[in-house]
Amino acid sequence: MSPESATSQPSQSQPGQALPLLEVDSLTVDIDGEVGKHRILDDVSITLEPGEPMGLVGESGSGKSMTLRTILGMLPPAATVVEGEVRFRGRNILTSGSGRGYDQKVRGTGISMVFQEPAIALNPVMKVGRQITDAIAEHKGLSKRASHDLAIELMDRVGIANPERRVSDYPFQLSGGMRQRVMIAAALAQEPEILLCDEPTTALDVTIQAQVLDLFRTMQQEKGLGLLYVTHDLAVVAQLCTSISVMKSGKIIEHGNLQRIFDEPQEDYTRKLLSATPRIDDGVQLERAT
Ligand SMILES: Nc1ncnc2c1ncn2[C@@H]1O[C@H](COP(=O)(O)OP(=O)(O)O)[C@@H](O)[C@H]1O
Ligand SMILES: [Mg+2]
C-alpha cells in the first residue's frame, strides 16, 4: 500500500480485516442521452480481492462497459455518478483526486484497462513500440534501450510475429487483431494491480485468443493481478476466472464463484446465458453468436 492511501479515507471494512483490492459500492450512474436522462447503472456493487480474476457477463447494453469506465474514471461527459463509491484499497478514487475529482494517479500501475476497441486507445501517429514503451518508461524509470527491449519482449509474449520489426510500425500498418494485442501489451507493461478488460479478445482468432488468455492467466497467477474481465463468452470466463458477476439492465443480478454459477444458477437470465455455453469440463471452444 502506498503511504498516501494509508493516510486517506478509511474503508468500511472491519478492523483487522485485509482490505479488498477494489470495491464498487452501490454505484448508480445516469446518462443524458438522445431520449433524455436515464439510469445506466443501478446500485452496482462488486468486490474484487487481491489476485482475484472475476468475469463480468451480461447481454449487450447491460452496463458492463460503463461499469469499467466508471472504475477507470472515463465515463462519457453526458454521464453522472448519482450515488456510490469506487474504493481502491479502501480509498474512494472517484473523489480523492485533485479538486475532489477522480484520482488520475491510480491509472497505470494501480488500474489499467484493455478497451474493446483499440482504435480509441492507440495514438495513430505514434509508432506502436513507443506506445508500449511510454507506458513502461513512465512508471518504471527504465532506460530507453531497456524499455525498448521490454516492449519487444511483450509484443512477442502477446503473439506478434517479428516484434523487432513491428515495434516501428504505426497502428494503421497492423491488423485489428494485432492492434488489440499491442493494447494488451501496453496495459500489461504497466504491471497494474487491477486489469480491467472489455471483451479484449473479440477481434482475435481462436489460436491467438488462446495465447492471450494464457498470458492473462500467467500474469494473473504470477503477479497476483486482480482481473475484472468483461465478455459475453462464458467459455472464456470458465478458463480464466474464479468468480462471476452477472449484469442485466444496469444491475448485478447474480454473483458467485465460477462452479456455483455454472452448477446452480439462481436466475433464469443466468441460465439462459449458460445454455449457450458448453460445460466447463467439455473443453470445447464456443462459436461466437456475434
Ligand atoms: N455515450 C452514450 N450516450 C448515451 N447512452 C449511452 C452511451 N454509451 C452507452 N450508453 C447506454 O448505456 C447503457 C449501458 O451501455 P454499456 O455499458 O456500453 O453496455 P455493455 O457494455 O454491457 O454492452 C446502454 O443502455 C447504452 O445504450
Ligand atoms: Mg460493452
- Largest sheet geometry: 6 strands, mixed
Query: What is the number of beta strands?
Result: 10
> CATH fold name of the largest domain, please?
Rossmann fold
The CATH H-level superfamily of the largest domain is P-loop containing nucleotide triphosphate hydrolases
Shape: globular
Structural overview:
It is a single chain. The chain is α/β, with parallel strands linked by helices and 290 residues long. It folds into two domains: 3-110 and 192-281, Rossmann fold, CATH 3.40.50.300; 122-191, no CATH class. The protein is 35% helix and 24% strand. The chain contains eleven helices and ten strands. It has helices at residues 3-7, 64-71, 118-121, 128-140, 144-157, 163-166, 176-189, 206-223, 234-240, 258-263, 268-275; strands spanning 22-33, 36-48, 53-57, 79-88, 91-92, 111-114, 194-198, 226-230, 243-248, 251-257. It has a six-stranded mixed beta sheet with strand order 6-7-8-3-9-10, sandwiched between helices. Helix 4 (128-140) packs across helix 5 (144-157), helix 4 runs parallel beside helix 7 (176-189) and helix 5 (144-157) crosses helix 7. Residues 1-11 and 280-290 have low confidence and may be disordered. The structure holds adenosine-5'-diphosphate (ADP) and magnesium ion. The site of magnesium ion has 4 residues, from helix 2.
List keywords for this structure.
alpha/beta; Rossmann fold; 2 domains; 6-stranded mixed sheet; 35% helix; 24% strand; globular; disordered N terminus; disordered C terminus; binds adenosine-5'-diphosphate; binds magnesium ion
